[in-house]
Amino acid sequence: MGTMPMSESQDLLTIKTLTKEFPGGGGPVKVLDGVSLTVRAGESLSVVGPSGSGKSTLLNIIGALDQPTAGEVLFEGRNIAALGEKELAQYRNRSVGFVFQLHHLLPQCTVLENVLIPTLAAPTSDDARTRALHLLGRVGLEGRIHARPGVLSGGERQRSAVVRALINRPRVLLADEPTGSLNPESAEELARLMIELNREEGMALIVVTHSPAIARMMGRTFLLQAGRLVEQS
Ligand code: ADP
Ligand code: MG
After folding, report:
1. Tens digits of per-residue pLDDT, 106-152?
2. d(C-alpha 172, C-alpha 161), whole Å
3. Within its chain, how far is the Cα of 107 from the centroid?
4. Ligand 1 pocket check: which of 30, 56, 209, 210 to mutate, most ligand atoms within 8 Å of Cβ?
5. Which end of the chain is more exposed for a tag (fewer CB within 10 A), N or C?
6. Per-residue confidence (pLDDT) for residue 124, from 0 to 100
7. What angle, 0 to 180 degrees and rounded to 10, lies between the N-to-C axes of helices 126-138 and 184-201?
């Protein structure tokens, strides 16, 4: 850190000319074709684009759930492709938080148990429980902590999923159409909560969305189209 210029040390993620090809019937299909992006600590940004344009692919590569064909992702200046197995697991579990369109909560566990699952790899602490209760209160779920996902509304499930994603204090929250299964009111409420948490918790926020209204709530907006990511003014 000490030897880095200030501007670079503030870059949380540096995404350099990513390409991603998938095998297709008529040969490889290039989904990402030279995507570059710098994300600074604590900022919020949205990615919009047509269905099939590679938005999920991009988030999965940033979160190390998938690997690029070429190009690299630097997290705090380190190439995540060069991380060892243990460091990579830590990156996925601690540095990054994921929220998907479907909540993926475990049906047999309560809300509180669900949001504590990512902390189970570390020694259990009162700290994790305190943080879980704080965050659940913050998103208006204080009265639902002992409920199981099956009895929750869609909005309550997604708010639980956001708390689970933030429980380990990630530096970046990756949200892939988090409001895609919600009605417009719950969708906007969830987006507003994510922005508030982005400000309070200081994690960067990257949201993929089909909603222009939600996209505009983020600090910067990008369009992914024909394999390219273009910042919108
Ligand atoms: P988006 O999230 O923007 O809708 P995706 O990233 O899910 O788009 O997919 C982009 C393109 O890549 C689509 O054409 C999709 O069919 C293709 N694709 C995604 N994952 C795979 C895969 N594992 N194997 C083959 N093709 C894939
Ligand atoms: Mg997608």
Report:
1. 999 999 999 999 998 876 677 999 999 999 999 999 999 999 999 99
2. 15
3. 22
4. 56
5. C
6. 64
7. 130
